[in-house]
Amino acid sequence: MNIMKIVGCVLVLVSSTGMGFYFSNEMRCRIEDLKELKKLIGLLRGDIRYSSTPLPEAINSIHRRHSGCFQSFFNYVSEKLNELSGHTFLEIWKTAVETELGSTSLTKKDKLHLMSFGENLGYLDKDMQMNTIDLYINQLEEVIVDLTKTVKEKSYMYNTLGIMAGIFITIIMV
Amino acid sequence: MNTKDELLKILSLKLRTILGKLTLDFDKLQEIRLRMNAPLLIIYGNKEAFITEDAKMEDNPTKAVLITKNEIRETMEYISNYSLYAFEEEIKQGFITINGGHRIGIAGKIIIEDDAIKGMKHISFINIRLAHQVKGCADPVLPYLFHKQMPGIYHTLIISPPRCGKTTLLRDIIRQLSDGTVYHTGMSVGVVDERSEIGACYMGTPQNELGIRTDILDCCPKAKGMMMLIRSMSPQIIAVDEIGSREDLDAIDYVIGCGCKLIATVHGSSIEDIRNKPILCDLVKKKLFERYIILNNVKGIGHLEEIYDTEGKRLYTDAK
User: Fold this and answer.
1) Which residues in A lie closer than 8 A to residue B13 (C-beta atoms)?
2) Which pLDDT tens digit goes with each residue over B225-240?
3) Interface membership of A81 toward B (CB under 8 Å)
4) What CATH number is given for B142-317 in this structure?
5) Distance (Å) of CA A116 to CA A71, A89, A110
6) B3-129 sits in which CATH class?
7) What is this model's ipTM?
8) Residues in CB range of B255: below 8 A, 6 or more apart
9) Do A54 and B119 touch (CB under 8 A)?
């Protein structure tokens, strides 16, 4: 019976510590993903600014040049846009945000920002596109800066909380 | 992709379904006209026809399907590839060229800034003009273009009223001169395609056949483009459509001075007509061109009426 208790305690400790590490790692990954997204939106900006490239072509070129976790997202948008299947740009963009970002560490809030970024893409003139993209890049930059400032403390907190929670639950169980 | 697919893809879902069911010979289809709150209209075999909801051609407009604001908005989204900003310059000129070389004329509310057209909003009228190449239409003209004494061609001006086939003729002349004919081996041709009408380039690829030795400067102002081509691509022949401004004439002087041969088109009905126009009269007075080809639509679009030499001597006539 004691052996079972010890095994149970060890399992609880390991899993809660693991959860702590998982959350702390997710936060680091989120920063990396946001940086990557910012870089890709920068590429989109360059394509539109330099040669007024239409969105399907610009997004397709990002998809071809990028092999990270956003590849399936841009691939989906580019394919659907080229199909001219009767859906608006916003519909395609929203579906892609909802379904194709599973492998990233973006939070719900990040995804909402990305969705609303798509609302004004393709609309009106080049200046409007530049403003929309610049606004989103600034928004991303702010989130990245905020996260980077607190990442050390927060990941330490997550790790410690994980271990402490494990110990706490074990004590209660015993 | 064939013409039918190319066209249907740019229409709204509803119009796509209706026109998809319609049994049409797309070679005879000339225009599709969408006007907000007006019936769907096509020009088919030089005749107007209204299209009904159950995909039938009718003469009576009251039976036709009405175009709504949504159809126009959706169609514009597909025409512009979800990217209206990418067609800012084209929209200022009132047309967009799509895959297949088809030209979409648009009209709506014009936005003016500093006395210049800045853009267009509330686009409510769309005219889809189908591109048709007529290969071989330059055959009767070509023998008159080649120099008798030395290799090469004469500086040639095609004069024609609108919709009489001058661009189609120019396109076929370019193709044949570039590929080579029984009269001459192929020559390198530079085309300044200011309105994307000659080559109908889509994402840099010409949709019309312009020959294997042809370089195209797409959407480039004619005067600047002619200079650029001479410096960069060393063409033997330069071809431009619809000349008319003072800058064009200065560039033509430069081209001719450089030893390049020039083929150009101009709106008009005769050499006299050109002589009476304020800027273009210089072309005739200075005897810059050595051949004048006059087209009209008396016996059908692209009818070759007359060919003159630089002195005004008639070399060919099919006039009554």
Assistant:
1) 86
2) 999 999 999 999 999 9
3) yes
4) 3.40.50.300
5) 20, 12, 10
6) alpha beta
7) 0.70
8) B226, B230, B238, B262
9) no
